[in-house]
Amino acid sequence: MAKQYDRDYYDRWYRGAVGAERRAHTARKAAVAVATCEYYLGRPLRSVLDIGCGEGHWRAPLLKLRPKLDYLGLDGSEYAVSRYGRSRNLRLVRFGQLESLRFDRSVDLIVCSDVLHYLPATEIKRGLSGFPELAHGMAFIDLFCRGDDAEGDHEGFFARSALFYARQFAAIGLRPVGTHCYLLPAYQQSIARLEQSGLG
């Protein structure tokens, strides 16, 4: 049976003591993503596309940092979107659909947090191919690879090599700048060599 991202799932992983710890961690990640993106944009962050957003847990910490932010969340969970779609601006979209799905304008920042290691490789490749048209600034993509000390939900987890993901990101022109942050091509011209991660 396919993994269900239903109320029971979110109750288990996002409520109570576990939820409080996760919210604090998400707030720290949001601060890193906003600060890094703004460093390269040279202006305040205006728009975010949160891919695989679940119940929209990134929305509150992002809006706390930038109250006028335009936030849109996408997720394949019918439960999460039916419950929070209207109040948190979430839409029912599966990752692979990003290959062809487009919106009115590209965003400053894509957030894709704790998502890719639960997806089949074919869906990852299809969905990632749309990133360069969906955003023009930066992508924050945090995930666990084989050999990482991954905590939390291991059901449906694909333990892939870091090289697999590095190749997928390079194929669409993403440039790593550290701490799960990747610049899209439009903002790569002025990047210094030592700002880039993975240089030998």
Automatic annotation (TrEMBL):
Keywords: Methyltransferase, Transferase. Residues 49-130 form the Methyltransferase type domain. It comes from the Bacteria. GO terms for biological process: methylation. The keyword GTP-binding does not apply. Pfam families: Methyltransf_12. InterPro entries: Methyltransf_12, SAM-dependent_MTases_sf. GO terms for molecular function: methyltransferase activity. This is Class I SAM-dependent methyltransferase. It comes from Pseudomarimonas salicorniae.
